[in-house]
Specification:
The chain is α/β, with parallel strands linked by helices. The protein is built from 11 helices and 11 strands. The longest helix has 18 residues.
């Protein structure tokens, strides 16, 4: 059988779409900093990522900072084991370890580990720089470059508290999914700016439940952080969000299964 170039291209595109749309789990569960709590894994470690994958979470969230010498690393707090990330070199950070012996992961190492599976999305949080807005934009730019370098676009959705950083990602990767975390923008403002959706604090959404319907009507996705109490999880599930970010993925998976 002979294939034209057009046919080969069509097959390639169809297979890529299938992978992007059908391979990943669709259960709303985003493990906050990985699935770390139940098994006492370090937060934002490769171990917590693997646990989220093992559980079958739709996504595993991780946080990204830039060292003083321009290396993107994965950690939630501004410091790693007492060392300020933005004012430390990567080599200096290697003098410390997570409690399970893992060293702090570079973004490339984390993405490489995440790409070994096709069920759990990698929810890439770009942390806003404490130094300057310009540096936040630089982190966003380097993040997009790293994802492209690792060919991890299908795995990655972006979230950030930095509005300027989010806009930079939208500019550089217009097909990427980018959600905003801070909570100071209406759904209409986010839609106008090109965001994929919002990921707002659960208490803010309880105060403004109309934002959920407004966002959905505009075609934006709805997520909330960090939802750990069973009563809050049940309330949010009643609103039919697209995602729920939690430190209790096992509990959330159980509550969702009960509703099926």
């Amino acid at each position: 059988m002979r294939f034209t170039l057009f046919t080969i291209l069509a097959i390639f595109i169809a297979s890529s779409v299938s992978f992007a749309q059908k391979s990943f789990h669709k259960n709303k569960v985003i493990a906050h900093r990985g699935a770390w709590k139940a098994q006492s894994h370090p937060q934002n470690s490769i171990a917590s990522l693997k646990e989220a994958v093992k559980l079958g979470c739709e996504g595993s969230e991780f946080d990204v900072w830039m060292t003083s010498d321009g290396v993107l690393v994965v950690n939630h707090d501004a410091d790693f084991e007492g060392m300020e990330i933005e004012t430390s070199t990567y080599e200096e950070l290697l003098s410390k370890n997570h409690e399970n012996g893992e060293k702090i992961s570079t973004v490339e190492e984390y993405l490489k580990a995440g790409k070994k599976q096709k069920g759990t999305k990698l929810i890439f949080e770009i942390k806003p720089s404490k130094i300057s807005v310009k540096r936040s934009q630089e982190v966003a730019e380097k993040s997009v470059m790293a994802v492209k370098k690792m060919k991890a676009e299908k795995w990655v959705d972006y979230i950030t508290f930095s509005y300027e950083g989010g806009l930079k990602v939208i500019e550089l990767a217009p097909n990427a999914n980018v959600a905003y975390l801070t909570g100071n923008k209406t759904p209409a403002e986010l839609k106008e700016a090109g965001f994929f959706g919002f990921d707002y604090n659960i208490n803010l959404l309880k105060e403004n439940p109309h934002w959920i319907k407004e966002a959905q009507a505009l075609g934006l996705t709805v997520n909330a952080w960090t939802v750990n109490k069973e009563e809050d999880l049940r309330w949010l599930l009643d609103q039919n969000p697209d995602f729920v970010t939690t430190d209790e993925p096992e509990l959330l998976l159980k509550l969702i299964e009960e509703r099926q």
